[in-house]
Amino acid sequence: MSTLQPPPTSLLDRYLGSDVEPLYTGRVTVTGGETEHGRASGIARSDDGALDVALRVPIAMGGVGGGTNPEQLLAASYAACFHGALSLLAARSGLSIVGMSIESTVTFARDPSDGGFLLTAQVRVNLPGIDRKVAAELVRKTERICPYAKMFRQGIEHIVSIAPETPSTNPPDGP
Fold this sequence. Notes:
Elements: E1 28-31, H1 38-41, E2 43-46, E3 52-54, H2 70-92, E4 101-110, E5 117-126, H3 132-145, H4 147-154
Antiparallel strand pairs: 1-2, 2-3, 4-5
Helix pairs in contact: 2-3
């Protein structure tokens, strides 16, 4: 097993290309589980098998709990990305931050504008031993480069489509 290393600070170098340059694509499939409802009893699995979690409706929303929910997954993703971006900026600035933590909350709520639903997010950055002015500047810069912060601020390009039908493996019924 190789030793874990942070990514290079060269990731912070400004990209000058004219097209989006994909660096990595994560792929997760959710199936419905015993209730055939992804949020209530689903399983979320990544294509590489590293992520394999049971999904459950939280008790606060009338569910049984006992699993992960989409809001927790999004909050974890946001916090991890923000932590990584802040770590890279600190390293490039020559700052050593020991014990940094990022707390992210994602709230599933009712939307009064259309009667549907919406998500809100918050991030709380803990930078022990770092001057407040330096910390504020570092967090401000991180907000500009963290793709999750950008997504929450500006939205995200997304495409929803229906997968092509796969040929039936069952033989046709009688003549």
